[in-house]
Amino acid sequence: MPDVLINLYSDTVTKPSAAMREAIARAEVGDDMSGEDPTVNRLEALMAKTLGHEAAVFACSGTQSNQMGVKTHCLPGDELLIEAGGHIACFEAGGPAVLSGVTCRTIPGTLGMLDVADLEGKVRADNQHLCVTRLLCLENTTNVGGGRAWPLDQLARVCGWAHDNGLKTHLDGARLFNACVAKGCSAAEIGQHFDTISICFSKGLGCPMGSVLVGSTDDIRKARRARKLFGGALRQAGIVAAAAVYAMENNVERLAIDHDNAKTLAREIAKIDGLSIQVEDVETNLVFFEVDPKLGNAGQLAAALLERGVKIGASGAQRLRACTHLDVSRDGVMQAAEILRQTVQAGFRQYKGSATGPYSRA
Question: 18-250: which CATH topology?
Answer without folding.
Answer: Aspartate Aminotransferase; domain 2 (3.40.640)
